[in-house]
Amino acid sequence: MPALPNTPFKRLLLLGGGHAHLNLLRRLRSEAPKSWQVTLVSPHSRQIYSGMLPGWVAGHYALDDCAISLAGLCERAGIAFAQTAAIELDLARSEVLCADGERRRFDFVSIDTGPEPALADLPGATEHALPVRPIEGFIKGWPEVMRRWKGHTGPFEVAVVGSGAAAAELAFAIRARASREGASDVRISLVGRDAEPLAGTAASVSRRVMRLLQTRGMHWRGNSTAVQILAGWIRFERCAVLPFDACLIATGAAAPHWPRAAGLSTDAAGFIRVDRTLRSVSHPQVFAAGDVAAHVDPRPKSGVFAVRAGAALAGNILAACNGAALTEWRPQRRALYLVSTADGRAIASWGALSASGRWVWLWKDWIDRGYVRRYQE
Ligand SMILES: Cc1cc2nc3c(=O)[nH]c(=O)nc-3n(C[C@H](O)[C@H](O)[C@H](O)COP(=O)(O)OP(=O)(O)OC[C@H]3O[C@@H](n4cnc5c(N)ncnc54)[C@H](O)[C@@H]3O)c2cc1C
Known about the structure:
Blueprint: E1 10-15, H1 19-31, E2 36-42, E3 46-48, H2 53-58, E4 67-69, H3 70-77, E5 80-83, E6 86-90, E7 95-98, E8 103-105, E9 108-111, E10 116-117, H4 125-128, E11 130-131, H5 135-150, E12 156-161, H6 165-180, E13 186-191, H7 203-215, E14 219-221, E15 226-230, E16 233-236, E17 242-243, E18 246-249, E19 253-254, H8 258-261, E20 272-273, E21 286-288, E22 293-294, H9 303-321, E23 336-340, E24 346-350, E25 353-357, H10 358-376
Parallel strand pairs: 1-2, 1-9, 2-5, 9-21, 11-18, 12-13, 12-18, 13-14, 20-22
Antiparallel strand pairs: 3-4, 6-7, 7-8, 10-19, 15-16, 16-17, 23-24, 24-25
The structure holds flavin-adenine dinucleotide.
Flavin-adenine dinucleotide binds next to helix 1, strand 2, helix 2, helix 6 and helix 9.
């Protein structure tokens, strides 16, 4: 590791207030390593819990119910909070260039900045559609979609591009919100490149989602790879265009460009390759966790695994700062996914098993509220 100028303290730089870093921020309250100056860099002073975002769209939650104050967590932990974004990593000089123009030095840096929206193959998406990520951008844009359908006469076509759980949850949430607002002319299409929605999950989950889409008057358009978004139209690789009045994009996770540009070892998609201690395989002064990391034991990019990585990351960063041995993390094989259908029910998916009903929604709501509350207190 390159030597930094002599200072009476060392520097730990945390990039992003993602799920894994939340765990560390809490532990720093009572376990701050001696002689270390810790700074969290995040473009927003709050972290919106993505698992509850569809519930906010549906009108089940106020935004405050889904928000964790990063600035507050930093204050309680006695660490510095810098409201800005990392834009460049200089591994030779051990510093991060931030959007506010400052270069922040580090002895250790930990990266939990989440995914970028996967829009590279979809020209026009940022101009003519509303991507669900970055989440703060979506939060700004969503009220405008509702305002437009309220002022619209005749059918208002909403297209949600994406076939994963987040896209399906959003589509159901929009259906629920439109009903709640009495906007009976809002029509919703879920558009994906797979034959069925939630293709990576058990067949019974896809079937449950398909059935619900039908019974709630929503349209599934599968085997449709969108290649361009125009003002009011989606163009596809092979099939006919789809007109829309509003288009939302929830097409999965892409890697930020700057970790690979810095010379960190990444996988083919640009995600940071880490070993089982969550340390970069190429640069031991770098840790990474959550969607931005590529693990030895590959797992789906999801909040569930980002949360699970949190305890391991926190333990290892504290150990590294204290000069102690690191511990290996082996993620569980399967995770429980709870998909809200925004009708007071949800679908549970665990490996090949699935279930649905009101009790699943009550369970999800309890887990999600509990998670956020743990960091709000
Ligand atoms: C609508 C929706 C619903 C979802 N529901 C579920 C679910 O129910 N279950 C599930 O398992 N997964 C769900 N997911 C997926 C889940 O959101 C992600 O897998 C998860 O957020 C990844 O966590 P993370 O810690 O890697 O990053 P994130 O949660 O994305 O957090 C990253 C943080 O870093 C900040 N940041 C970004 N760039 C920078 C930068 N350059 N410098 C500094 N800070 C930066 C961001 O502002 C953010 O605060 C959902 C996703 C969406 C979009």
